[in-house]
């Protein structure tokens, strides 16, 4: 089947999901590819429409084994209109549990036709200098793998009819309930005197949780713990306080040392 264009949508507070999507799109090598970055709150005001002759890629990080709840509304509004769809989750080398099946299920509900699903590994949001977790992933091997995945998607589309692609793809996990998984509501960021007030943290916050006039104020009810503000700070003024999240980071840094590899899933035909 002939694909007119590729629409690659991604949410990526700390950049790992974005890096994987970009590598997949490089591998697909379509002349008309559009990236739709929905990380910034304003960017989620626009909704995505796709068509039968477009390839739709939807990529999200895994939060507590699920699709980040912050995205539910935006994902729900996608009109996929029989577009062949690639579902991608990126996780921090612990587990992706029900995230991939949840994303696939949401895309089917939106009218998409999942043709391939994948789980890749990215440096964990909670990874830090003393608590490395999947440090520097996706690495060169992961990106090579993602490009090859892109080439395989392209070959699959070239050799298939629309009907060939409609059989079900089996991915691990159980479709979770509609209720979003609750995130801890904690004040876990320390701000040192090195803060220059540049505001990069507030701009990078995907939840609009950092006060735009007083960057030291974070609304912990809105914060999704993504650590984008910590990772973007040019002065390294934002760090994790000792406490619940730091304890989780220490634990994960110990328990998630074994390297996991990307997993791909295709339909049975
Ligand atoms: C609140 C929260 C929950 C997370 N839950 C998981 C998880 O259940 N399993 C896992 O392996 N990684 C988990 N991660 C790590 C992210 O999935 C991982 O770091 C991902 O690469 C981040 O994507 P990004 O760089 O595009 O923001 C979690 C991260 C956050 C912030």
Spell out the blueprint of helices and strands:
Blueprint: E1 5-10, H1 16-28, E2 33-37, E3 54-61, H2 72-76, E4 84-91, H3 99-109, E5 113-121, H4 140-159, E6 189-191, H5 200-204, H6 228-232, E7 238-240, H7 244-255, E8 263-266
Parallel strand pairs: 1-2, 1-3, 3-4, 4-5
Antiparallel strand pairs: 5-8, 6-7
Helix pairs in contact: 1-4
The structure holds flavin mononucleotide.
Residues 12-17, 61-65, 90-95, 122-125, 183, 225-226 line the site of flavin mononucleotide.
**Total number of beta strands:** 8
Radius of gyration over C-alpha positions, nearest whole angstrom = 19 Å
Domain count, please report it. Answer: 2
Q: What structural class results from the helix and strand content?
A: alpha/beta
CATH superfamily membership of the largest domain: Flavodoxin domain
Helix-strand pattern:
EHEEHEHEHEHHEHE
Shape: globular
Average pLDDT taken over every residue: 95
Bound molecules: flavin mononucleotide
Outline the biggest β-sheet. 6 strands, mixed
Which stretches are poorly predicted, pLDDT < 50 over at least 5 residues? none
**CATH topology assignment of the largest domain:** Rossmann fold
Strand content: 15-25%
Continuous helix count: 7
CATH architecture of the largest domain: 3-Layer(aba) Sandwich
According to CATH, what is the class of the largest domain? Alpha Beta
What order do the strands of the largest sheet run in, or round the barrel if closed?
2-1-3-4-5-8
Structure description:
The chain is of the alpha/beta class and 269 residues long. It folds into two domains: 5-177 and 258-266, Flavodoxin domain (Rossmann fold, 3-Layer(aba) Sandwich); 189-242, Alpha-Beta Plaits (2-Layer Sandwich). The chain is built from seven helices and eight strands, in the order βαββαβαβαβααβαβ. It has helices spanning 16-28, 72-76, 99-109, 140-159, 200-204, 228-232, 244-255; strands at residues 5-10, 33-37, 54-61, 84-91, 113-121, 189-191, 238-240, 263-266. The strands form two sheets. The chain has a six-stranded mixed beta sheet, with helices on both faces. A two-stranded antiparallel ribbon has the order 6-7. Strand 1, helix 1 (16-28) and strand 2 (33-37) form a beta-alpha-beta unit. Bound molecules: flavin mononucleotide. Flavin mononucleotide (FMN) binds next to helix 1 and strand 4.
């Amino acid at each position: 089947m002939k694909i007119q264009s590729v629409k690659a949508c991604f949410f990526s507070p700390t950049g790992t999901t974005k890096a994987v999507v970009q590598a997949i799109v490089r591998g697909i090598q379509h002349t008309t590819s559009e990236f739709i970055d929905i990380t910034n709150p304003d960017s989620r005001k626009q909704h995505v429409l796709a068509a039968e002759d477009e390839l739709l890629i939807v990529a999200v990080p895994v939060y507590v084994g699920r699709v980040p709840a912050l995205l539910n509304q935006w994902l729900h509004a996608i009109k996929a209109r029989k577009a062949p769809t690639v579902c991608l989750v990126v996780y921090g080398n612990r587990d992706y549990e029900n995230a991939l099946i949840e994303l696939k299920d949401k895309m089917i509900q939106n009218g998409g036709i999942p043709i391939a699903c994948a789980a890749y590994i990215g440096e964990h949001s909670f990874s830090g200098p003393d608590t490395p977790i999947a440090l520097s992933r996706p690495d060169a091997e992961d990106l090579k793998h993602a490009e090859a995945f892109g080439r395989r998607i392209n070959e699959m589309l070239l050799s298939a009819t629309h009907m060939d692609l409609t059989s079900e793809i089996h991915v691990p996990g159980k479709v979770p309930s509609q209720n979003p998984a609750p995130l801890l509501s904690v004040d876990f960021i320390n701000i040192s005197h090195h803060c220059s007030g540049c505001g990069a943290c507030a701009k990078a916050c995907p939840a609009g949780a950092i006060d735009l006039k007083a960057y030291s104020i974070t609304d912990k009810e809105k914060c999704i713990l993504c650590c984008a503000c910590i990772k973007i700070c040019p002065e390294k003024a934002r760090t994790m306080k000792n406490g619940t999240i730091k304890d989780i980071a220490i634990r994960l840094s110990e328990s998630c040392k074994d390297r996991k590899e990307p997993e791909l899933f295709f339909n049975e035909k």
